[in-house]
Amino acid sequence: MRKSTWAKILQFAIDQASEKITTRNATFERLRAFNKIRMKKKREEAKARAVEAKEAEAEAEAEKEERLKMEKLSVMEMQMITLGESPERKSLEDYATEYCLLARKGIFKTNTTVAKLLSWKNDVIKMPLLKSLSSGEMSAMSIQCFRNATGFMGDRSSGKGDEGHAEKLLKNCLSGPEDLRDEVYLQIIKQSTNNTNPQSLLKAWQLFGVVTGGVAPSRSLEPYLASHFNTAKDTHPPSTSGVPGIHEYAEYSLGRLMKITQFGVRAEIPTSLEIEASKYMLPFLVRVYFVDGTYEMMPVQSWMTPSDLAGQVLELLGVAEENRQAFKVYELTPENEERCLDDDERIADLVAYWQRLYDEQKSRDARDADAQTFRIALKVHVYIDPAPLKSGEPDRAAEKLMYTQAVYDVVSARYPCSEDDQLSLGALQRQAEKPNTNCTAAELHRYINGKLIGGTRSAELTAELNKRMAAHKSKPPSEVRVMYMDHVRKWKVYGSSFFWCRTQMSATLPEEVFLAVNPVSLSCTRAAM
Fold first, then answer.
1. How far apart are CA 382 and CA 518, in angstroms?
2. Which of 270, 277, 521, 529 could form a Cys-Cys staple with 284, CB 3.0–4.6 A?
3. Closest by alpha carbon to 429, among 449, 459, 455?
């Protein structure tokens, strides 16, 4: 074959191959371009989904923060004091002219002016401001109070801290006569009038905030003191820096003055924690326990009563207002005794009393000091079927508290019930707490009273409880809690308070019985049960 023919065949093959390569490359390019578009679209979609997820997360977080904020505001609003209209203004000059000791200048005791008497002084006073304290033991006590007040303000150098000065000042006021309390208020007025030191002046108003939480003035001084606070509030503009100023402290002190005059002088010296909080117009925190051992940290003001505290906790939990009368605040002692707090008690005094007991025991024997552990607890006081919410929905918060109380009463053997009942209820409780999870012998005490557990019985009871729990395997916690409550509500002793009694002149009753009293019945049962 000719060379030219081979060349033509070779060229044809090359052309064919080139055409196929070109076609293939064009196809690959189209596929590559399509893939780029597809990947770009995927990235854009993923980015859009990420943005949407982030926005949804931010929205959910914002809703959560807003909810928490509203809960906090709702709770804090309960602590606010409505001042109302300002009363008629009273002139301190009129009060001082009648009650204060003006004859105090020089060895001949010539009269000073009211303005000078009630103006800041850079050294310790030599005699009280009030006439009624000008002689005797109270004269020296008044001068000591002035030393503590000026030490708190920084007008006088001292190695003692603010809380130490405030605590000693309050201790003297609470143990002294009413005139000494008036004297202290006048001393702080003096040191906060014409005071050119901004730091000292602010500390004086902080001291007003502390003292109004524990010390009630006399009826004669009260309107003048209120007028002094009102005047300061009106003449000093609100703070714009976020840091409380005289306007805020005057308003705070006025509100606390209204409360302290309503409830009267404190029974206990405020704790250092309360004093420190009052300095900055803040509540102090206490733990409010529930019967299952959980607790909420709640803000407490100096004037709050048990009903105020219960209202705060129930508001936070979302319990409907019509169901709140069923719950009250109790004191739990180190010996596990409980006492329902009286309506006129003050939570701050209760905490201060516990602190005093602790300090006294610690001073006697530091080794046993930790044994004195008191607690505040919210408990069911009246056993009711919670009314539904205004929307018609069940009051889940109230129902949960009722359920928690019922579990505690069963497991602690407050209700006398049979072993069979305890196993059935324990199975329901376990399903409510840890659905479809078998109980171990180590956990059994959470569901059955400890008196039933012992020796080889532990394994037997655990197996029986798990067997009964299997019957509720498909049931949600909300359903088994309802079943639990339906079970205990059938008992005649549900919701009862128990009283051990000795019978007299009865041929049918044993010598010892317990009396069960609840809102719907009164029953008597053999004590051995």
1. 8
2. 277
3. 449
The closest alpha carbon to 382, from 286, 275, 520, 175, belongs to 520
3-class state of residue 297 by DSSP: strand
Residues linked to residue 153 through DSSP beta bridges, in sequence order: none
- Out of 279, 301, 325, pick the residue that ends a domain: 279
**DSSP for 436-502, written as a single string:** T-PPPGGGGGGTS-GGG--TTHHHHHHHHHHHHHGGGTT--HHHHHHHHHHHHHTSTTTT-EEEEEE
Residue 484 is predicted with a pLDDT of 96
DSSP 303: T
The tokens describing 321, both together, are: 């207002």
Q: What is the pLDDT of residue 493?
A: 79
- Which residues of the chain carry a pLDDT beneath 50? 66-73, 75-76, 528-529
Element (H, E) at 331: strand 327-332
pLDDT on residue 63: 53
Residues in the chain: 529
Residues 6+ apart with CB under 8 A from 462: 439, 440, 441, 444
pTM score of the predicted model: 0.77
Domain that holds residue 503: 496-529
Q: Work out the burial of residue 177: count CB atoms within 10 Å of its CB; fewer than 13 is exposed, 13-18 middle, 19 or more buried.
A: middle
CA-nearest of 324, 336, 345 to 291 is: 336
* 362 and 426 housed in the same domain: no
The verdict on 331 and 269 lying in the same domain is no
pLDDT value at residue 71:
46
Output the pLDDT for position 96.
92
pLDDT digits (tens, 9 = 90+) for 19-64: 666 666 666 666 666 667 667 776 776 676 666 666 656 655 655 5
pLDDT score recorded for residue 70? 44
3-state SS, residue 108: coil
What confidence score (pLDDT) does residue 64 get?
Answer: 52
Q: At 296, list the tokens.
A: 């909420």
Q: For residue 324, what is the domain's CATH number?
A: 3.10.20.90
Q: Evaluate the CA torsion angle 295, 326, 318, 428 in order and state its sign.
A: positive
H helix count then E strand count, the chain: 16, 10
Phi, then psi, of 506 in degrees rounded to 5 = -135, 130
Domain count of the chain? 5
Residues 119, 260: one domain? yes
**Sheet with 522-526, edge to edge strand ranges:** 497-502, 512-517, 522-526
- Per the rule left: phi > 0, alpha: psi between -120 and 50, beta: everything else, 322 is alpha
Distance from chain centroid for Cα 427: 34
Residue 166 makes CB contacts below 8 A (sequence gap 6+) with 148, 152, 207, 210, 211, 275, 279
Sequence-ordered list of residues with C-beta below 8 angstroms from that of 141, at least 6 positions apart, any chain? 133, 172, 176, 180
Chain Cα centroid distance, residue 363: 29
